[in-house]
Amino acid sequence: MINSFLIFIIFLALYPPENVRSLKIINQDSISITIGWNKRAKMDIDGYEIYRSKYKLLGIVFQDTIFIDQDIQPDNEYLYDVVKKERMKKYKDQKDFLKIVSIGYQLIKDTVNKRNIIKWKRPNDLYLGETYEIWRAEKNGDYELIGTVSGMDSSFRDTTMKDGVKYFYKVSAFKGNEKVFSNPSPPIFTIGTPKFVYAEDIPNDEGGGFRITWEPSPNYDLLKSYVLMRLVYDSIAAFKDTFSFTDTTIRPNIEYHYYIGKNYQIIMPAKIVADSIGMTGRVIRIEWKLNPKVIGQNYDLTLIYRAEKDSANNFKYVDYTAPDEEKFIDGTAEPNKEYIYEARAVKEVSIPFKIEKDTCIENKRFITLSWKKSKEPPEFLGYYVMRAERDSGNYGIYARLGTQVNTFQDRVGIYDNIPYAYRIVAVTKDGEKISSETTPYVVSSPQWFHTGRINALIGITIFIFLVIFFIEYAKKDKNIFVRRIAGLSAIDEAVGRATEMGRPILYVPGFSTINDVATIASLNILGEVAKKTAQYNTPLIVPTGDPIVYTVAREVVKESYNKVGRPDAFNPDSVYFVTDSQFAYASAVSGIMIREKPATNFLVGMFYAESLIMAETGASTGAIQIGGTDAVTQLPFFITACDYTLIGEELYAASAYISRNPTLLAALKSQDYSKLVIVGVLITATILALLKIGIPVYNLFNIQ
Predict the structure, then answer these.
(1) What is the 3-state secondary structure (H, E, C) of 176-192?
(2) What are the backbone dihedrals phi and psi of residue 362, each rounded to the nearest 5 degrees, phi first?
(3) How far is CA 307 from CA 267, 269, 531, in A?
(4) pLDDT tens digits, residue range 598-646?
């Protein structure tokens, strides 16, 4: 017995288990990691044991973004993992879940104090409820046994790893009780499958789109991209004058989805405007004139077709462009060939249909679809029938996305009331594809009401109520108080002064177009001033710098004279067009001030750099000047050079202030009280915030 034991010891001394060599990762997929090693042909061992680094939880951090590891050995290598945990809100058909993601970190080795400092960035600064766990694995530290294989094997497949975790591996060759370990493998990062994939109809839209969201793989640095896959509908039939179809190419006990579409096409001849040889070959530039039927009709694409001049009827597809484009560059033309081109605007529209029959005769299934006949324009090509088999696996690529993206809106080729399903595929840098689960089927539809605009509805309702209330209030001959505006109160004085002095009144409606709100407000004031000049028989001069403004201003003045019963006093030449050149207009107005010496100058409207020129010239003539504009940069010049200035909203309130029209006064007071409501809400929210009763005030004023 003793001799046998001595022989065994001598045998182990002479033939120890050989060290495992060239430990490497030979394969990695979404559910496993396979490691391999080299061995000699003649090796007398019992088997191999596979070990994996054991992660140790160092600590849990709340909201902080730094952790210091004091318990380290200088001669050891450490690998850390920072894991973020946060409670996620539920999707429509899912419960609340705990989201756990490995995040990137920065490792700072402090060799003086013998410590490691781990730093990371907060992924979401607005969310303060997350916690962080700091884990550590030692390259030369504790390992856990995860499997054993025979001495004839040279690989092992690990299927117990977790998503988003980093591991070291070791392999030991053992014989009896003696073990010899390999060197640790390089750290291997596991790639998590995209989870919680959810597709939903985009809320508050006009239909024709879905929002797809998912939780991305934790180690996005190992990924190349994400690919969005969508259920594909195949074309199975096309008609033009038929309004029903029977599908006979189906299998029993299979659920099918259909949709019926209409196809429109408008052909637009294109002409070649340039034909040259570039660095990449022949380049032909074509242009065409957009057909009026295409404009504003929601056409999907413009297809470019090309044919050789000798075979003009044999057009072939080249490429596509946007429906509103009128030019295209063709870089695929062959040399020494003459071509002609066509641009074809195309549009597809889904139509409602119904399943008339779904029967089975002699073990053969038939589905009959029908749809209503409708009157179609000449560009109508026909009807087409599309079909998809539920759970068929027939999914096509619809988008390629970045590795840190976790949401996407699909609006291409989506038809309302048609079921669709999606998958997210993570593509690794090695080309491996990791697919998520398929989403439940979803259907898009337009919404009648935009729930994100309820605040706008409430605001409009309050404003309309205030307008109606003050209109009725003003109709009862009750005096509606409007604070005194000095510039408007001085209008009567200014007109009276001009009448006494026998001089004209100069009214400048600004140097802008009729589209400007300040110009419209100025024309309203012009109408009230013209009424007073008509009553006092005071000359009025209105030079304009825009043809349309001239036409409107002329009619405004004429109507004002008619309203006060003085149509005979209206002089058509008192309102005239000068020029649309800015400083030429300023020079002309300055010349009028010096030659005519008006007693009162009204500079009301939208002004630019010419404001100071006219205001200074008018001040030098001794005239009373009333200026008004909503241009912030020009207000200082008017305040300096004019006797009275209408600032900002005072310009808009002027017509109501002067005319005392009940409707205008009601609108003015409604605006004031609406502002008062907004200020009251802000004050209330501020008080609640100080009392730590937080409400999302910004949502009250955010119109989506």
Answers:
(1) CCEEEECCCCCCEECCC
(2) 55, 50
(3) 14, 12, 70
(4) 999 999 999 998 999 999 999 999 899 999 998 889 999 999 999 999 8
Reported CATH class of domain 195-240+354-435 = mainly beta
Rounded CA separation 132/105 (Å): 12
Superfamily of domain 2-48+142-189: Immunoglobulins (2.60.40.10)
In CATH, what class is 486-660? alpha beta
pTM value is 0.54
Provide the token pair at 447. 């919404």
Question: How many angstroms separate the first and last alpha carbons of the chain?
Answer: 90
Q: Is the dihedral of CA 538, 541, 547, 548 positive or negative?
A: negative
Reported residue count of the chain is: 704
Pairing of strands 155-158, 33-38: antiparallel
Encode pLDDT of 47-93 as tens digits. Answer: 888 878 777 777 787 767 788 888 777 677 777 777 777 665 554 44
Closest CA to 528 of 424, 404, 420, 655: 655
Largest CA distance in the chain: 143
Q: Angle, nearest 10°, between helix axes 582-596 and 611-620? A: 10
Which residue matches tokens 């027939």?
A: 394
Domains 195-240+354-435 and 263-347 share a fold: yes
3-state secondary structure 32-98: CEEEEEECCCCCCCCEEEEEEECCEEEEEEECCCEEEECCCCCCCCEEEEEEEEEEECCCCCCCCEE
Cβ contact 306:296 at 8 Å:
no
* Cβ 325 vs Cβ 304: under 8 Å: no
DSSP for 351-390?
Answer: E--EEEEEEEETTEEEEEEE-------TTEEEEEEEEEET
Q: Angle, nearest 10°, between helix axes 517-536 and 491-501?
A: 50
pLDDT at 68: 82
Domain ranges of the chain: 2-48+142-189, 56-137, 195-240+354-435, 263-347, 449-479+666-688+695-704, 486-660
Band the pLDDT of 423: cuts 50, 70, 90. Answer: confident
Closest to 400 (Cα-Cα) out of 433, 360, 439: 433
β-partners of residue 158 are 33
- Pairwise CA distance, residues 84 & 647, whole Å: 54
Contact 122, 104 (CB under 8 A): no
CATH architecture type of domain 263-347: Sandwich (2.60)
pLDDT class for 7, splitting at 50, 70, 90? very low
Could you write out the DSSP letters of every residue in 452-488? GGHHHHHHHHHHHHHHHHHHHHHHTTPPPP----HHH
Closest to 548 measured CA to CA, from 572, 523, 521: 523
Q: Is the dihedral angle over the CA atoms 394, 397, 403, 408 positive or is it negative? A: negative
Q: Rounded CA gap, 506 and 542, in Å?
A: 6
Find how far residue 353's CA is from the centre of its chain. Answer: 33
